[in-house]
Amino acid sequence: MPAPERRTRWDLTAAAVLVVAVVGVSTVLWWISDARRTTLVTAEGPPPQPPAIMQLPPALTEAWRAASPATPVPLVQGGTVVTGTEGTVTGRDVRTGSIRWSYQRDRPLCTVAAAFRGAIAVYLRGNTCSEVTALNWTSGRRGPQRTGPVEAPTRLAAAGNQVAASGQHYLEVWRSDLVRTLAYGRLPTPAQPATQPRPDCVHGSMAVSPGSGSGGQLAVVEHCAGERARLTVQRSDPKEPDQPEVIFSVLLPGQQARVVALSDDRVAAALPNPARLVVLDGQGKTVAEYPLTVPDTDLLGDPPGGVVDVTKTSTRLYWFTGSATVALDAGDLRPQWMRSGSLGPGCEVAGRLLLPVPGALAVLDTATGEQIGALPVDRASYRGTIDTASSGAVILEQRGPTLVALH
To answer: Over the stretch 33-54, which tens digit does the pLDDT of each residue have?
Structure first.
């Protein structure tokens, strides 16, 4: 029988050297990794749920405010409101503004949006908004992550089980696990360049729809050299992500246009000179055209981030043109009424529309647009666009880079 092997001093020395080497390599990798520069503080338990509001209060006062330049609109679900500034995404108690959870990186935020019942944070790396993280709305726990070459600046538009990231030359659509379902435009590293129909066109605006049985859709206004504005509607989840499945692509009657809304079988685009809303069916045929009594300047150029300012409900869409709010039917996208002199699209609270106007939140009948009251609001010197949302008795106003809570 052979003699049993014995560990010599050299064996022990070699093993010790190997352990030190592994620890050293691991330490170096951790030191240079993103994990070392990420701080996550999660919340203990859910926040108190604000009670439903059955009627509007007689007056509003400011409860708290926080810097939030990375959120284009107020982001609130239940008792938690999300803010984003510099490299930090924060979940706050909607009643007090106190911090419940936070996620911090050493990179600047491109944007933050609400999707899939969570917060989607997009971070800048180099010249692109390429690092994406999903955060649980209640606890702040980290969910799926992805990297991709989304252009800066970008804005997210969510609908159902998908979210689209805008870009002037390249845009993407992701599903809830942040797997990319569509790549459209000038692909950074195209495997099959010929699969993209118009890689040299500029994307002006976009809108997404969850769709019905056939899946979701993405509408894009494209500006291509030598032709009028082009409206393209395609599947947001084609069989191959880099091979678009276009439903229709048509030229619009003008050099400029904006996608306003997309439903299962309709898409609406706004055009200037003269100002009007054009509605097309699922085959790209114009089925209606509505004049708009707004200045042409409201509709010139492309909206910031490539997404128009719209608040959606189950029955209506409230679209802010820049100087007026237009209520659209959520099905056929027909304008129902318009209110000039507004500062944003507004939000529905207790069966009424609260519409930001100078010095107040006007209280409107949602069906007719008739004003039936007003809640004075002191905004000091702020005169810009205001996006609103609500949770229980708390009304949130996004005033530029600042989020303000009123109650």
So the answer is: 455 479 999 998 888 888 888 8
- Given a contact cutoff of 8 angstroms between Cβ atoms, the answer to whether 214 and 220 are in contact is no
* Pairwise pLDDT comparison (13 vs 1), residue with the higher score: 13
Per-residue b or e along 88-102, where b marks 16 or more CB atoms closer than 10 Å to that residue's CB = bbbbbbbbebebbbb
The DSSP code for 79 is T
Residue range 335-350, pLDDT digits in tens: 999 999 999 999 999 9
Helical (H) or strand (E) element with 363 = strand 360-365
Nearest residue to 387 via CA among 165, 137, 71, 122: 71
The rounded distance, in Å, linking the Cα atoms of 377 and 101 is: 29
> Which amino acid type is present at position 355?
L
The first and second tokens of residue 378, run together, are: 């002191």
Q: What share of the chain is helix, strand, coil (3-state, %, to 5)?
A: 10, 50, 45
CA 313 to chain centre: 16
CA-based torsion, 323, 395, 74, 318: positive or negative: negative
